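Retro notes (design track)

What went well: tokenization of the new backbones is finally stable.
What didn't: we kept losing track of which sequence belonged to which structure.
Fix going forward: every design gets posted as structure first, then sequence, in one message. First example under the new rule, 309 residues:
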């Protein structure tokens, strides 16, 4: 039994597909399948039920996978202790990030980070807040970037920056003529493009704007993404909300659809969280430094005109 074999079975459990697991582990599928089969032969038991689609663990396989996760977490901790002792910026670092942050923040710092630290292998996964919290507890990721919310006491938290929300308004919408958007303007709107419940981006705005119509509009628009909603607005339909970093990526014609909120402007605090046993502080400090230097300096502090949501 090897740590590599345990990594392979965790990958298969994560994606429930041998081919995709092989891609995740950066090996060929025959190699991954052969190593898992060898482990099953050594243990004299089947870890996965290959007759199911998607592939699923057997009852005993579920217990084996849970134990493998603990073993790998402890093995990784030993390596991390040594790397921190050397103040190393090498090795694998697994980062979870909200899908409402990733498309706008990652291009700001990620390419430069990879160029600066060529020995560092950062593997990024877009995840909801609840998924990031769970993945940190199970050791599936090393850190997460998300918006500040209640209930993060079990984690170490590092401030990154503040980001205010903007409305994105179709030209045909009656609110397009407004230079500012007030929460009262949205109260009776029936064409709000909102993310699924469980996205803190949506939940924070619904609370701040007191959107009583959010539930009914959510029934119609529950399958969209922020980028999809932006395309709908651009085609002439409704209103959606976008974060500050997204505005920086817009073309001149797209910026004409952006409307700021009236004071106090709704704002979220972006943070980086890790488990309480996290030890690679040198890497974390450099990551935070790279992120903060990639955003405008005025976003590092909360303004008096902004209200945290």
């Amino acid at each position: 039994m090897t740590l590599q074999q345990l990594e392979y079975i965790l990958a298969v459990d994560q994606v429930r597909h041998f081919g995709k697991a092989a891609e995740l582990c950066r090996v060929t599928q025959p190699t991954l399948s052969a190593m898992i089969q060898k482990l099953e032969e050594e243990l004299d038991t089947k870890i996965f039920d290959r007759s199911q689609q998607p592939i699923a663990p057997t009852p005993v396989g579920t217990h084996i996978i849970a134990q493998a996760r603990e073993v790998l977490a402890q093995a990784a901790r030993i390596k991390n202790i040594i790397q921190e002792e050397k103040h190393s910026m090498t090795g694998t670092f697994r980062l979870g990030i909200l899908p409402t942050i990733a498309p706008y923040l990652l291009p700001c710092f990620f390419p430069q980070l990879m160029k600066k630290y060529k020995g560092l292998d950062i593997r990024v996964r877009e995840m909801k807040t609840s998924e990031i919290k769970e993945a940190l507890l199970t050791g599936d990721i090393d850190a997460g970037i998300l918006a500040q919310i209640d209930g993060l006491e079990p984690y170490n938290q590092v401030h990154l920056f503040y980001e205010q929300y903007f409305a994105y308004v179709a030209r045909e919408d009656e609110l397009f003529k407004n230079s500012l958007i007030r929460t009262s303007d949205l109260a009776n709107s029936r064409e709000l493009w909102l993310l699924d419940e469980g996205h803190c981006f949506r939940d924070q705005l619904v609370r701040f704007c007191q959107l009583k119509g959010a539930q009914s509009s959510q029934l119609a628009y529950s399958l969209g993404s922020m980028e999809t909603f932006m395309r709908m607005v651009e085609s002439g339909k409704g209103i959606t909300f976008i974060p500050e970093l997204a505005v920086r990526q817009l073309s001149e014609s797209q910026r004409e659809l952006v409307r700021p909120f009236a004071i106090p402007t709704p704002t979220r605090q972006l943070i980086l969280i890790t488990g309480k046993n996290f030890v690679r502080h040198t890497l974390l400090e450099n990551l935070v430094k790279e992120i903060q230097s990639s955003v405008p300096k005025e976003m590092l502090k909360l303004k008096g005109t902004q209200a945290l949501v």
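Added context from the reviewer: The domain at 89-309 is CATH 3.40.190.290 (D-Maltodextrin-Binding Protein; domain 2).
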